[in-house]
Design brief:
Elements lengths: L1 H13 L6 H13 L9 H17 L1
Helix pairs in contact: 2-3
Length: 60
């Protein structure tokens, strides 16, 4: 009984969808932003670009 409850709670807490439109858009934008021509972009600058793109996509 206790193990069933623990199993149920763990599935409830740790269950995350594997695919979402948001994550797919983020990876797609990442491929467009960081490519061979922009491979020297610092991670902080890349993070800022992703934040801006995600906010623009959220407004659509």
């Amino acid at each position: 009984m206790v193990l069933q409850l623990i199993r149920f709670l763990s599935l409830l807490i740790y269950c995350v969808t594997a695919i979402s439109v948001t994550s797919e858009n983020l990876f797609s934008n990442a491929g467009l932003v960081q490519n061979d021509q922009r491979n020297r972009m610092e991670p902080s600058a890349l993070n800022m670009v992703f934040n801006i793109l995600s906010k623009l996509n959220a407004e659509k």
